[in-house]
Amino acid sequence: MIVCLSVAVAVLTAVVAVLIVKICVMRKSMGEIARGFGQKLAADTNTLIDVTSRDKAVCALASRVNAELFKLNELRGKYERGDNELKTAVTNIAHDLRTPLTAICGYLDLLETREKSADVARYISVIANRTEKLKSLADELFAYSASATAPQNIETVCVNDVLEECVADWCGALSERGITPDIAICADKVVRAVDRSALVRVFFNLLSNAVKYSDGDLRIELCSDGAVSFSNRAEKLSAVQAGRLFDRFYTVDESRGSTGLGLSIAKTLTEKIGGRIDAEYIGGSLCVRVRL
Prior knowledge:
The protein has 292 residues and is of the alpha+beta class. The protein is built from eight helices and seven strands, in the order αααβααββαββααββ. 62% of the residues lie in helices and 13% in strands. Strands 2-4-5-7-6 form a five-stranded mixed β-sheet. A two-stranded antiparallel ribbon has the order 1-3. A hairpin with a 4-residue loop joins β4 (219-222) and β5 (227-233). α3 runs parallel beside α8, α4 crosses α6 and α6 runs antiparallel to α8. The chain is elongated, with a radius of gyration of 30 Å.
């Protein structure tokens, strides 16, 4: 009896030991799959995930993950090719539009110097206004396509000075909308190594957005940690719309003739210079914040 009990205990001990080893091996394999999955996603490669375990279930899991990764890489390749093709097409279209529009604007300027009746003057004014809007849209399309591919010119920049210059340039447009900005710029100099032209474009696009959609107020704040916020009341906006503001070609009000690229360009450029941008909509107020 004692011998049988000892044998049973020995067998159970061996079984438990085997199970413990098997669990440890499987845990190691799961870790290999998890690490490999993360590395393959980040590296954009078609290499497979390798596991040291020869357990059929683990190998089957690794095989299935590899198959899905292969499909994902194919889809990513198609997306990137499509995105590049779209940007190329947008660049070509914008360029083709800008050339004749520039010529039209030139001829309209010449017509302004000629004698004409009141009706003709009114018609020319309407044409000039619409042409200028078309030219602005073409410029925005061109800026969008160029924002992701343009080389950077990194230099040491004082963000305080750049922000002040941009706000000064927009004073006229803000005044026309009856907006007197509340500006709070920290006393400390915020210095960053960035592409100055890209940063100017970001601020310009955010100010343009505020001019379009503000209910008559605007607060601009620069903190010593490099966070720049543009806040304004926007009662007509919704939380869902605010969440889509950075989507390419999304526009809140299509009647304004916007391409919906301004904030998308701002996001692309902000990330390109190593910053982050986000929007928050609370209680009828929109706050777009850039962190440098």
